[in-house]
Design a protein that fits this description.
The protein is of the alpha+beta class. Helices cover 33% and strands 27% of the residues. It has a four-stranded antiparallel beta sheet, with helices on both faces. The chain has a three-stranded antiparallel beta sheet with strand order 2-4-3. A two-stranded antiparallel ribbon has the order 1-5. It is globular. Bound molecules: iron/sulfur cluster (2 copies).
């Protein structure tokens, strides 16, 4: 039974990259979201399609979301799942879990980790990171890849209106993701599983209180 608990030192090791193979791997629905967030924040982001719904977030040096003076991720609350789960790593084919020695906390505790990190211990030692890992596994194994999907993005400063729109869409369609950005004020992202009627969605979104919106068909995940 391991008594250690992971403590992030807020060093820069997982936000500064010198080799592409160390870059974060994102899921397809995250790439849709961060592409829009990047546009709204005037950041140029690059993603490389690795197939099967995985993308590499191409970063050379500091991550574009890293704020150097405050030594913090600007999108801390909504950072990618792979960043949330770090220093846990997972092999999604075998579901084998390991830890990254790039992280100084792992490096300092490697003897204890290698003695007994298994099963429930992982969840106890890395409680928040393990939640992110479970979320990754859920997306990879339970969300169908070949069905049509539609992403809805909009910005508004009227929170009640945004809630009403989300409720209307959720009542009519199978919504698999809703995000209200904590980084870009008033930005919402809704992901619909299955066919959705664009004219119905436009009837909800085409109004003065919505400053911008976009409907985007999600290409098949191959
Ligand atoms: S490398 Fe480890 S300690 Fe440093 S910021 Fe990342 S998770 Fe935290
Ligand atoms: S998104 Fe945030 S946590 Fe992830 S690499 Fe960039 S700055 Fe670091």
């Amino acid at each position: 039974m391991l008594r250690i608990r992971f403590k992030c030192y807020r060093c820069v090791h997982c936000c500064f990259f010198t080799e592409e193979r160390e870059n974060p791997i994102l899921l397809w629905h995250e790439v849709l979201y961060y592409t829009k967030i990047g546009e709204l924040m005037n950041l140029k982001l690059n993603f490389k399609n690795l197939g099967h719904g995985f993308y590499r977030f191409i970063i050379d040096g500091y991550c574009p979301f890293y704020n150097i003076p405050s030594r913090a991720c600007q999108i801390q609350k909504e950072k990618p799942l792979s960043c949330k789960m770090f220093p846990i790593l997972v092999n999604l084919a075998s579901l084998e879990v390991s830890t990254s020695l790039m992280c100084p906390w792992v490096y300092e505790n490697i003897d204890e980790i290698s003695r007994g990190l298994s099963g429930d211990d992982i969840e106890k030692v890395f409680s928040n990171e393990f939640k992110a890992l479970k979320e990754v596994v859920k997306w990879v194994y339970t969300v169908p890849k070949n069905t049509p999907k539609l992403a809805v993005y909009f910005t508004t400063y009227f929170k009640n209106l945004a809630s009403d729109i989300i409720k209307a869409i959720t009542e009519r369609y199978e919504v698999i993701k809703v995000t209200e950005s904590s980084v870009v004020d008033g930005f919402y992202y809704i992901l619909i599983e299955g066919d959705a009627d664009p004219s119905y969605l436009e009837s909800l979104l085409k109004r003065d209180e919505i400053t911008w919106y976009k409907l985007e068909k999600v290409p098949p995940i191959t």
